[in-house]
Write the structure tokens for this entry.
Amino acid sequence: MPDAADPASMNARRKFRREGEERRRQDLIEAALDSVAQYGLQGATLRTIALRAGVTAGLIRHYFPGKEELLQEAYAALVGRMTEQAKAALVMEDATPRQRLAAFVTANLNAPIIDTQVFSLWATFLGRANADPTLARAHREGYLGFRNEVEAVVAEVLVAERLKPDPSELRHHAIAINAIIDGLWIEGCLAGEMFSPGELAAIGIKAVEAELGLAPLKHDPEK
């Protein structure tokens, strides 16, 4: 057996404990999102969240000062997950910047980002943001984080096209493209059955390329 005072053994225990605590924290965040989806923000009490997570309300307070802080983390996790899912589409070998941009738009306009429950959660949290500074801060950070990703992809495309926009132009493009994606995302979440597979993505790519002043290319939105 390893010596209890052995540094390697102690580091392993600390790592195990840290990973365990991070896992429990994440489980509480998921339980909070599930509770908000089922009961709304008012109905998602610490008790209902604790019951869904299979823990006591006291344990929740070990990880979060209170319900508001837990809900802020839950909303940040929801928005961050959507951004990370879209960013995953950028990991493409031998892809041109325009192809990466098209993949990014497509990822945002397909499942799992287009999802009625995801939209319901987003709208529920957003409806409270104006009256809740913690949620407002989480929303602002999520919005700016996503917009920064858009700006970085757009910058790559414009450099490849031998265009050199200044920072204000990049910012304006990112705001416009974010609005295009948001609008089509809401359409897909609320009335997805009205659109054929890949239709929203194709519209999104066309609108984004027009915003950037690019000549149209042929895309396959289902790829």
The mean pLDDT is 89.
